[in-house]
Amino acid sequence: MSYTPTNAKEVAVKFRSIKIVMADKNLRALTRDGYYPETAADLNPVAATQPNTKANQKLIKSNLELDISGALTTQISYNGLDVKADKSGADEYTLTVTGNGVGWTDPGPNGEQHEEVTLAAGWYDAKNKLLGHVAREQVCPRPETNGGCTYKLPVTLTGKPVRMRFVVRDALNGHIGTVDVKF
User: Fold this and answer.
1) How far apart are the first and last CA of the chain?
2) Within a domain: residue 35?
3) What SS3 state is found at 29?
4) Residue 128 belongs to domain with CATH number
5) pTM for the whole thing?
6) In a 10 Å sphere around its CB, with 0-12 CB exposed, 13-18 middle and 19+ buried, how is residue 102 labelled?
7) Which is it for the CA torsion 77, 60, 40, 104, positive or negative?
8) What is the predicted pLDDT for the residue at 126?
9) Is residue 114 one of the residues assigned to a domain?
10) Please, what is the Cα angle at 166 between 175 and 106, to 5 degrees?
11) HSE (side-chain half, CA atoms, 13 Å) at 142
């Protein structure tokens, strides 16, 4: 389950509380207490940083690692990107990103655009212990049909996993999408 706010009239810095009540009292919802709405400063965190210095590159890398780690190690769904995962080989998965949220680069001299993402996968045992993970950065040219992008992620599973979580983070706008696969 996920939630996307529709009321943009409220003050952007105002914390918005979330409360989930389950109809079945035997069930429990795992949620955050709330969130701060996205602001214009959030739209392109890379472009909003200071000049390209080693200190800023380190800060950007740390923030990226924190975003990916947080999304990989929680069971909360991220819906900033629409992500689908399919097994496409013995040790390979195909991740497809479609719909809103994709950050396309400005057209280059030849008019082409592309999406840059960080892909990550983590696999877990029956006790929800992280058994292993893999991550990589990839680029996808914008398709003529606006159908989204497809990425291949090699994954060599270790241990006895019961589920795997995939995370895709758009490098241009910071949007994140997740999808879970059960074995």
Assistant:
1) 20
2) no
3) coil
4) 2.60.40.10
5) 0.71
6) buried
7) negative
8) 95
9) yes
10) 35
11) 16
Average pLDDT over residues 134-138: 94
Q: Mean pLDDT, the chain, as a whole number? A: 83
> Domain limits at 68?
45-182
- What pLDDT band is residue 49 in, cutting at 50, 70 and 90? very low
27 in a domain, yes or no?
Answer: no
Q: Per the structure, how many domains does the chain have?
A: 1
Classify 19 as helix, strand or coil.
Answer: coil
Inter-residue contact 126 to 155 (CB < 8 Å):
no
pLDDT single digits (tens) 70-115: 899 998 999 999 999 999 989 999 999 987 788 888 888 888 889 9
Q: Which amino acid is at 75?
A: Q
- Answer whether residue 92 is part of any domain: yes
Torsion angle (degrees, nearest 10) of CA 22, 23, 25, 27: -50
